[in-house]
Amino acid sequence: MTAKAEKRLSGPEGGAQGAPPPADAWGLAEGDEIVSGRSAVRLLGGGERYETYLAWDERLLSLVVVKLVRPNLIEDQHSLDGLAAEAELLERLRHPVIVRGFGAVLDGPRPHVVLEHLEGPRLSTLIRKQGPLEPEQLLPLALQLCSALHYFAAEDLVHLDVKPTNIIMGAPARLIDLSIVRSVAELERVDYRIGTDSYMAPEQCDPGGRGPATTAADVWGMGATLYHAAAGRRPFSRGRRGGSLVERFPQLEEAAAPLGQPVPPELSALIGTCLAPDPAARPAAAELAAQLEHLVAALPKRPVLGRFRIRPRRRDSLGIGSGA
Ligand SMILES: Nc1ncnc2c1ncn2[C@@H]1O[C@H](COP(=O)(O)OP(=O)(O)O)[C@@H](O)[C@H]1O
Ligand SMILES: [Mg+2]
């Protein structure tokens, strides 16, 4: 099963628990009109409720990303409400590490949100193709994610789905997919699971027993993501659907395997604190950022950078101080 297929809402929001959704797709080809003024370029992805297309926007004269409710769900109130909530967040949130929106069409035959098109591979693709990330790439990513999560926390929001497929590795990296964001207050009333199995904090896996999820759940998601990026593998063994709660969510009882070399021990330790079973024992995103800064400062200087040293220009070449 792919990571994508794991994203589920259980209970009242998710419909039949564990049942795979019917593969209902828009099937748009390049050049097909999505709505007037927006035409499909190619399919980018698709989850349980939405399909995502790269599209051309005639008014913006730009590539955009269009996230559409699947055709079989355009009458489904939960899917429409989810899209409306995502549209509202895209309108409201402003942060350089969080994807921006260009509006939404919430009624009509093709309800959708329009997003800026982000260049760059997904973190999941990068790890799959290139293996573990070096500290020079991992530390800035960690800092950027901390910055986004600090912003979320200040808004009393929990992303709930921080994972490598929801991160685009541009400059800066960008956190996408606001489809299951909840406020801390909403989560106090949630007694069902929301998230992606392998990246869910213990309190997301067992909201009745350990919940409610708070902003610390995103710190866990970031820890699991950074672990995956540092090691090239996920922190916990793969869960088994249909088994007991602990069989499905090994992170409820398993400790993450030590990261070991070549990940610097200080970085391993920080990632480990994000994966603390007790949410109160995890650092806040801002605290983590402060500690990461020290690791960035301690990165070894690479001699190759010397080749790009910029020599100061001579004053006379600028015509300054020559008496002219
Ligand atoms: N703004 C964007 N720019 C580039 N690619 C995107 C963008 N938004 C989504 N995608 C691509 O589409 C996929 C699915 O989008 P996502 O918002 O994560 O929806 P889902 O809820 O189906 O997971 C992403 O994993 C990514 O590959
Ligand atoms: Mg996604």
Summed up:
By secondary structure, the chain is an alpha+beta fold. It has eleven helices and twelve strands. The N and C termini lie far apart (74 Å).
Shape: globular
Number of helices: 11
Return the average pLDDT rounded to an integer: 89
The number of distinct structural domains comes to 2
Q: The CATH topology of the largest domain, please?
A: Transferase(Phosphotransferase), domain 1
**What value does the Rg take, in angstroms?**
22 Å
Strand content: 15-25%
Quaternary structure: single chain
List keywords for this structure.
single chain; 324 residues; alpha+beta; Phosphorylase Kinase, domain 1; Transferase(Phosphotransferase), domain 1; 2 domains; six-stranded antiparallel sheet; two-stranded antiparallel sheet; 11 helices; globular; disordered N terminus; disordered C terminus; binds adenosine-5'-diphosphate; binds magnesium ion
